Amino acid sequence: MKMFRKHVGSISRISTQLQRGPPTVGSIAGLSTEAEAAPKQERVDEKITEFRTAITNPGGHSPLQIAKFYTIPAEEKKRIFGGGGLPKQYELQIKTFTEACLMVRSPALELLQYIKQADLSKPVVRYVLYGENGVGKSLTMAHVLHYGALHDFLLVHVPWAPNWMKRPKETANATGQEGFIDLPFDAAAWLVHFKTQNAQLLQKLQLKTSKDYVWSKRESTPTGSLLTELVEHGIARIKYASETIAAVISELKQLSTAGQCKVMVAIDGFNAFFHPETRIFSDNKQRVTPDRITLTQPFLNITNYDWTNGVCILSVDKIAMTEGYMESYMPRYLLGKDGFEHLDPFVPVHVDNYTDKEFTNYISYYVDRFWITKTAPDLEDQLKFMSNKNPYTLMQLVRGL
Amino acid sequence: MLKRALIYGKFRTNGIYGSFENGTRWSRLMSMYPPHYAEPIFKKDSQNMEKYELAKLSHVPIKAALNSSSDTIFNAELKQKMLAYIVKCGNSRLARELLTKTFEQIKRAQIERKHLVKQDNGHAICIDAEKLLIQAIENSRPLLQLSSIKRGGVKYQVPVPLTSKKSYFYAMKWILDAAKEKDRKISLSSKLAWEILDAAHGQGRVIKKKNDLHRLCENNRAYAHYRWS
Fold first, then answer.
1. Which residue of A has its CA nearest to B125?
2. Residue B100, domain extent
3. Which residue of chain A comes nearest to B114, CA vs CA?
4. Which of A280, A317, A314, A312 has its CA nearest to residue A295?
5. Least CA distance to A22: which residue of chain B?
6. Which of A232, A236, B55, B174 is the most buried (most CB within 10 A)?
7. Each residue of A349-359: pLDDT tens digit?
8. In degrees to the nearest 10, what's the CA dihedral of A203, A209, A214, A216?
9. For residue range B75-89, what is the model confidence (pLDDT) as tens digits?
10. Dihedrals φ, ψ of B52, to 5°?
11. Model confidence over B144-175: pLDDT tens digits?
């Protein structure tokens, strides 16, 4: 329970930080100190056309907005990414820059277009984001997630799946299934994340469970109770959190197939579920494979194509694996035979390094946020050369400038 | 790699190393170059010089540029020197990482400060970490030092002026020492960042140390003549 409070505490901390800075337009206006009110307004507009866009709804993004920054309103950021979803270093940048800005990039637009045009009555389409380290797979996912949150998708979002395999908070033997491992705290934390992301929508839709869930002699969730009740039970009774997740996910599948809701599944580092081993040890001091963890099953279940009215956005990542399994970033290699067959057929979406325009805009954004204060004539060329236009490398290079 | 063409140089007079203030050239005793070799000029913007200067250089042999000296935005003379002082056991990669993190923290702290005071004079706050580092080092450079000199069987603490090279050395050493004096749980980068910020604003322990030394020198001014008599 203590871990949990920490988790919730961090959410509130982020929110207070965000509240400190007003969203983009205001803060830009505030930064130009010497100008008066009227020219200030002009300057803001100018800046918006330069490398920012005023469209804060990802649904409105088109190729016109490519390589431009849009601001995620603080409220929405807190709701969607409060429990994770943005990389840690990016959160730090957000705090320093006093605004949560994402760049509109082509992989995200491609995905958004697919999702908009998809026929939801057909079995779910799995989109797999792949690419080198640090090209922005997670942020692409964040962009799409923001779209989903604004367009009435129920979000089933795993911010970083390898956390469960690599550094679980606590492990316990599963009660229900013999030889399986439970991660009660992580499961409960995920339920909290699910609840905060979808609280409004769940309130609106009033989704009901389709069958009885008997947890123990005294505890049970009867048919027809609300999905939120089920989730809350899982949060309150951490022991049953993993089973609750399985229940919630199977319920969601049924509900969406029945057309009561739309579901967006977003799992970052999905290939961790197919890693040959985890860092968890069983009772007989042997490493457990991911399929022996109770949390794996529901998320493999929901990435299957046997349901409709949903989309699955998965990312495969080299750093979701451990040493010795990181030779290539290609989905077939990272997922392995089993994983590939599980996902087959899927739509691969390649995330690449910045284009020249994106790179230039990023540099101007950094300059705008005072993150780069150096002015050398060939600054951009040098950074381009050093970073190979890789977003993460650029971030690492620029921090010491 | 730098081309040979970039390496043509001249006698450096503006750098902090390479010459004493009285004009005599300083060189290492075991240097591989004879003293008449000129320092290389690897910075592009200092290569634009007058014709007669170039003519002067055309027959002077020039030292090869160091591997580490390249004309990038990431290098600066004092920064490189500071880096060399941070290195332990030849682990310069770690040192570079530490200094990068230091700069990052300085920037974050300054930007936060800037946002706090943005209403009135936010533009007065310097965010450039490198400038702040240079400012900090300049602020903490001592002018004098006490050296013990024996006269008539008694040792006197005699105030002695420092060369510019030494004063830079002390400034950087003090800043680093102050940063190393920390709790085990605090990383060097964050402490160093605070020390640099303090020193750049003319406060903090390093500045105090410098002022203390100056005060001691001032108190011992009566012995100053022992330097030469």
1. A370
2. 77-227
3. A31
4. A280
5. B115
6. B174
7. 999 999 999 99
8. -10
9. 888 999 999 999 999
10. -65, -30
11. 999 999 989 999 999 999 999 999 999 999 99
SS3 B229: coil
Quick check: A30 and B119 CB within 8 A?
Answer: yes
More confident residue, B50 or A392: A392
Nearest in space to A40 (alpha carbons), one of B118, B125, B124, B126: B118
Of the pLDDT bands very low, low, confident and very high (cuts 50, 70, 90), residue B121 is low
Q: Two tokens at A334?
A: 């990272």
* Domains of chain B: total: 1
Question: Measured in whole angstroms, how far is the alpha carbon of residue A206 from the centre of its chain?
Answer: 25
Q: Is residue A7 part of a domain?
A: no
User: B118 pLDDT exceeds 80?
Assistant: no
Is A396 in contact with B96 (CB distance < 8 Å)? no
Find where tokens 């809350």 sit: A232
Tell me the shortest Cα–Cα distance from B112 to chain A, in angstroms.
Answer: 7
| Type of residue numbered B69 | S
pTM comes to 0.82
pLDDT score of A43 more than 60: no
Q: Write down the ipTM of this complex.
A: 0.80
Measured CA to CA, the distance from residue B189 to residue B195 in angstroms comes to 10
- Per the CB < 8 A criterion, the answer to whether A51 and A67 are in contact is yes
Domain annotation covers residue B68 = no
A96, B111: Cβ pair inside 8 Å?
yes
A154 & A298 share domain: yes
In this structure, is residue B104 part of a structural domain? yes
Residue pair B15/B38 in contact by the 8 Å Cβ criterion: no
Task: Please check whether residue B204 is in contact with residue B198, taking contact to mean a CB–CB distance below 8 angstroms.
Answer: yes
What is the domain-level CATH number for residue B173?
1.10.455.10
Long-range contacts of range B117-123, CB-CB < 8 Å, 24 or more positions apart? Answer: B118/A30, B118/A31, B118/A33, B119/A30, B119/A33, B120/A33, B121/A33, B122/A31, B122/A33, B123/A33, B123/A34
Structure tokens at A326: 């990181």
Q: Same domain for A103 and A113? A: no
Using one digit for the tens of pLDDT, what is the confidence trace for A58-115? 999 999 999 999 999 999 999 999 988 999 999 999 999 999 999 999 999 999 999 9
Instruction: Decide if B42 is inside a domain.
Output: no
